[in-house]
Design brief:
Blueprint: H1 28-58, H2 63-80, H3 82-90, H4 99-132, H5 134-140, H6 143-161, H7 163-167, E1 168-172, E2 178-182, H8 189-225, H9 229-233, H10 236-264, H11 272-300, H12 302-347
Antiparallel strand pairs: 1-2
Helix pairs in contact: 1-2, 1-3, 1-11, 2-4, 2-6, 2-11, 4-5, 4-6, 4-8, 4-10, 8-10, 10-11, 11-12
Length: 348
Amino acid sequence: MTFEDFENYSYFYDLSEEDESPQSSLSIAHIISLFFYSVAFLLGVPGNAIVIWFMGFKWDKSVSTLWFLNLAIADFIFVLFLPLYITYVAMGFHWPFGKWLCKMNSFIALLNMFASVFFLTFISLDRYIRLVHPVFSYKYRTVKNTLLLSGVIWMSAAIIGGPALYFKDTTTVLNNVTICYNNFHVHDRELILLTHHILIWVRLAFGYLFPLVTMVICYSLLIVKVKRRTVLTSSRLFWTITAVVVAFFVCWTPYHIFSIVELSAHHDENLHDLLQDGIPLSTGLGFINSCLNPILYVLISKKFQAQVKSTVSEVLKLALWEVSRSGTVSEQLWSSDTAPAHHCETAQ
């Protein structure tokens, strides 16, 4: 395997150009990233499922619940695919699942990232419009319009993440190890670098900078224009939204930083070792975000806490009732089985 074969490789999957094959043993950074992936999966699946259950089936449909419901759906779809990442890293960056799952896995990761940040952005805009422009909010802030905007957001996230379906590919390197990597399909190095730059900067602009600027402006205007600030800061919805937004940017900022550093690695081989550890770690931290939102809802939202406690109580009561009823039925069956025998013995 030559250098030219992998000059279009993305360090997201941890194969350096000079090593030419995945590492045979996992580094400490990769072990930590495995821990992040596992935590995100173990907490994210049940956590987001609970949020989807309450906001999708138990609560009345409103604009706010629809925003958070879509956010939970995006996270839930993503964490379902995490076992593929976990297996990939645990096997020393060997991809045994085939080319189409390689494409789909990468696409789902990008779809989740963009859908999550877009929904967070519109949650902030929705909060601003509701408090600062009540007349406009009363007229246009409807469930129907929210559903339409949600569809547009999903389509936009799919379009921006779509290149993964085209560029992601698999190939076999030394020792029959299969990798999932960015195959830009060209032999012109300048065109490869241009394609890579475009993909990274589009992700940075739409998945980070635009949402960050929008949210900062919205919350700044809220603080300035809302005269009764106690109404704003005492609202648990405000703190829920703030916590979710802060968690997103804390988790995903390192990923975007290393993505920019990755672009420089085409010209500086000294960055390869840094990226081999930094990309998996920053990606794992980003994945953690998918399991944080349900935890934040439970910690901050009194309504969510009350609903969870009520549901758990109902489930326990139902379980105890079924157990007690099962015992009663068993006793009745036992009595019905023994009664004829006792009657026969008496008759004899």
